[in-house]
Amino acid sequence: MSNQSEQDPTLLEEKFSFLKPGGDYHPPDCTAQQRTAIIIPYRDRWIHLHILLYNLIPFLVRQQASFTIFVIELAMPTTFNRALLLNVGVLESLKRDNYTCFIFHDVDLVPLDDHNLYRCGSGPRHLAVGIDKFKYRLPYGGYFGGASALSRDQVFRINGNSNLYFGWGGEDDDSFYRVNSAKMKVSRYPVQIARYRMIRHERDKGNAANPMRAGLLETAARRMAEDGLSTVTHLYTTENVWVKPLYTWVTVTVNKTHVMQ
């Protein structure tokens, strides 16, 4: 059972003092087959982040995962861009270790079943199959949002995610189209296992619905080779990297006008 009560960060640091700096963990009694980067795109969700960590860290430890938690923050005033931040998370994490598996994880989703293994498989895996907001059902067949697991090879095969989705909506569908275009198949655990509770919140300021998402989705497959990991390096500036007890926090700035040119 998940706990969605507000959590004191200082108490969490004491509770999870076994973590190495930067939110890093290696299971003491086995050698993990995968080295996993947990990538959390972030803006102004302090309470939600620590509720997630209260639940996610012991969840990963019980699964004997070898992991590091990365929080990737987009500085104001730029409109939020979840997919671009996921790309940043991949590149910034690989500067620090040889990660072989990437978990892309929204800050407001708490996994409910330990059998929902946070591992990468032979193809991309959609983790957040059943969310309470959707009555624990997949909202539509191509839904790829919330949380997903891709190996390093899979991420680079689809050139990561699109950098063009500013605002809410569409970027996860774009990623699903990329996976299909690369002739890979998305796998999912049964909905009885891949269940999540959403931490309630109001719509974020600076994250209005993206009016361009329909047009962008029409060109998703055609843009894949030239819009993603291969181009994001020139689109952001790293302002700060903080190695904290619970996570590695990376703050970046992005010029939206430059990205959309």
Largest sheet: 9 strands, mixed
Which class of secondary structure composition applies to the elements? alpha/beta
Shape: globular
CATH fold-level assignment: Spore Coat Polysaccharide Biosynthesis Protein SpsA, Chain A
Q: What Rg is obtained from the alpha carbons, in whole angstroms?
A: 17 Å
User: Could you give the count of β-strands?
Assistant: 12
Task: Provide a brief overview of the structure.
The chain has 261 residues and is of the alpha/beta class. The chain contains nine helices and twelve strands. Strands 1, 2, 3, 4, 6, 8, 9, 11 and 12 form a nine-stranded mixed beta sheet that branches.
Brief descriptors of the model:
single chain, 261 residues, alpha/beta, Spore Coat Polysaccharide Biosynthesis Protein SpsA, Chain A, 9-stranded mixed sheet, 22% strand, glycoprotein, Galactosyl_T, Beta-1,4-N-acetylgalactosaminyltransferase bre-4, glycosyltransferase, transmembrane
Could you explain the architecture of this structure?
Residues 125-202 form the Galactosyltransferase C-terminal domain. It comes from Batillaria attramentaria. Keywords: Glycoprotein, Glycosyltransferase, Membrane, Signal-anchor, Transferase, Transmembrane, Transmembrane helix. With 261 residues, the protein is α/β, with parallel strands linked by helices. The chain has one domain (20-260): Alpha-Beta Complex (Spore Coat Polysaccharide Biosynthesis Protein SpsA, Chain A), CATH 3.90.550.10. 28% of the residues lie in helices and 22% in strands. The protein contains nine helices and twelve strands. Strands 1, 2, 3, 4, 6, 8, 9, 11 and 12 form a nine-stranded mixed sheet that branches. It has a three-stranded mixed sheet with strand order 5-10-7. The N and C termini lie far apart (46 Å). The mean pLDDT is 94.
